[in-house]
Amino acid sequence: MSGELRGFLERLKAENNPKPDDPIIPISSARKCLETACRKLGFPAYTHHDFRHFFATTCIESGVDIPTVSRWLGHGDGGALAMKRYGHLRQEHSLAMSKKVHFEVKPKDNIIHLSSSTSAKTNEPKQNTAGQKQAIAKCKAQHAYPWWASENPVEVFWGQLNEDVPLISKEKYLGSAKLAMGREVFESELDDRESLIYELVSRISKTAFERIASRIPPRRITVESLTNIGQG
After folding, report:
1. How many other C-beta atoms can be found within 10 angstroms of the C-beta atom of residue 188?
2. Where are the alpha helices (DSSP H) in 75-152?
3. What pLDDT score was predicted for residue 115?
4. Which end of the chain lies in a sparser environment, N or C, as judged by fewer CB atoms within 10 Å?
5. Distance (Å, rounded) from C-alpha 223 to C-alpha 209?
6. How confident is the model at residue 76 (pLDDT cuts 50, 70, 90)?
7. How many helices (H) and strands (E) in the chain?
8. Where are the domains positioned within the chain?
9. How far apart are CA 185 and CA 92, in angstroms?
10. What's the rounded Cα separation, in Å, for the pair 103 and 101?
């Protein structure tokens, strides 16, 4: 038990003064209040299992070895299941940390940098061509609900996952992906959209999936193949 958890439980015990045989926390499930809170705040439908994943992910990215995290999760397989589920985090975290390392090279005083006539144009955002704008307009016209303007990251991420035409910027796509999935999402993962669709449906509740699928019908995978994937 961590020191923070022990201190929290001791404060609850002092405040509530339970009987010797009574639990300090009488509530065994927060499923309904979590669903209500997430719905009112426009968040993804987080569950107890999501927080369990969050705990394991945070521990591993903080440097705790997987066999130890496995024991904390209550696994009895020596870390085999945790390694299969979270093993990729070590490589991803290592890669993310490596991007923070920068080696400064001081320019020499005797080098004069000449301005380039094309340098000013390289940093300008690319504008969509007339053909691209037509393709985007045609794609939007097929939707009754404008998910690309939604403030709900799950809707934005789900909508773009099911489209071959980019209706939002890559930055917004990646940002919505991270919020919708509740984890770090790397740009290279966006190429495997079917895997992301299956994972997203696995992370949200069945009710949340049915609601979002009614607003934004899936185009890449049938509803029937996804219905039984979502959490109960």
Report:
1. 9
2. 80-98, 119-122, 130-141
3. 47
4. N
5. 10
6. confident
7. 12, 0
8. 3-95, 130-227
9. 10
10. 7
* Vertex 57: Cα angle to 5 and 230 (nearest 5): 105
Encoded amino acid at 44, one letter: P
Pairwise CA distance, residues 33 & 42, whole Å: 14
51: its two tokens: 């927080």
Contacts 24+ apart (CB under 8 A), 134-141: 135/165, 136/165, 136/166, 136/167, 139/163, 139/165, 139/167, 140/167
Angle, to 10 degrees, between the axis of helix 66-73 and the axis of helix 80-98?
Answer: 130
Question: With a threshold of 0.70, does the pTM exceed it?
Answer: no
> Quick count: other Cβ atoms within 10 Å of Cβ 94?
10
pLDDT tens digit sequence for 89-111 = 666 666 766 777 766 665 555 55
Separation between Cα atoms, residue 176 and residue 157, nearest integer Å: 5
Structure token digits, residue 55: 């705990």
Residues 131-185 pLDDT 10s: 788 888 888 888 888 999 988 889 999 999 988 888 999 899 999 999 988 889 8
Give the residue carrying structure tokens 């979502």: 230
